[in-house]
Amino acid sequence: MPNIPDHFNLKARDFGDSFVWGVSTAAYQIEGAHDMHDKGPSIWDEFTSKKGNTYKDQHGKEACEFYHKYQEDILLMKKMNIKHFRFSLSWSRIMPKGTGSISTKGIEFYNEVINFCLKCGLTPWVTLYHWDLPHALEEKGGWTNRDILGWFEDYVTICAKSFGDRVKNWMVLNEPMVFTGAGYFLGVHAPGKKGLRNFLPSVHHAVLCQAAGGRILRNLVSNANIGTTFSCSQITPYRNNRRDHMAADRADAMLNRLFIEPSLGMGYPWETIPVLKQMQPYMVSGDAERSVFEFDFIGIQNYTREKVKHSFFVPYIMARIVKASRRKVKTTLMDWEVYPPSIYNMIKRFNGYPGVKKVIITENGAAFVDKIEEGIVYDKERLSYLQAYLKQVHKAQREGWKVDGYFVWTFTDNFEWAEGYYPRFGLVYVDFENQQRIVKSSGKWFSAFLAYKKIDL
Ligand code: NOJ
Question: What one GO molecular function would you report for this record (predicted)?
Answer without folding.
Answer: beta-galactosidase activity
